[in-house]
Amino acid sequence: MCGRYCITSAPEAIRALFRYPDRPNFPPRYNVAPTQPVPIVRLMEGERRFALVCGGLISAWVKDPRGFALLINARGESVNDKPAFKNAMKRRRCLFPADGFYEWKVEGGRKRAFHARLPGGGPLAFAGLWETWSGPNGEEVETAAIVTTQANKEMGRVHHRAPVIVPPEQFDLWLSNEVDQDAAAELIKPALDGSMDVYEVSPAVNKFANDSPELVEPYTAPPEAEKQAAPPRPKPKRTADSGQGSLF
Q1: For 172, which DSSP code?
Q2: Is residue 237, in this structure, part of any structural domain at all?
Q3: What amino acid positions are annotated as catalytic residues?
């Protein structure tokens, strides 16, 4: 499941790739986590626009989000059928700007973190879905989830799932409401083999409070660390009030 990623390119580089008129200024983030505000790009009145939303989708029909676990990912194979996603797939598709993502592999009793990015680095786009939840007192919360699919060859050595990466020439196809959900779903497929660099990174990325360039540097665990490593702890339940902090 992909819920942790990084956004490290300069704002102008991201703006140039996604071609939105907004001029947001934000620092690099090396450890974006669920429940934080995250940037998305979507079509509003026929124009690409930058927006900040909550990372993790709340369906519009949820009565009380306090008792609802945020949907961090939308499984691509079923987005046109699942009640939580099918309306967003029809009308509210978006893109997540990113520079790479993290995944974990349990091996020999040790939980190892890996980073995946384009060869040489640079910004890219995850396919996403967004929703607006409206409360009984008129409050509104915008949320979004990353669409996932089967991993390609490189990522498959670490985990069997990965975000759907949308090439720039297909941004309009994914975003446009004039393209129906079945046609848009044709983009839900693994990245081409050989199109990603995947390498181990420091276990410091396990803590969402850590946020520094060292998190995306290649890492080799010291032999003593491998011998003494404790078994991985179970993942805590993610909820909207988990207190993971702010993106910006």
Answers
A1: H
A2: no
A3: 2, 103
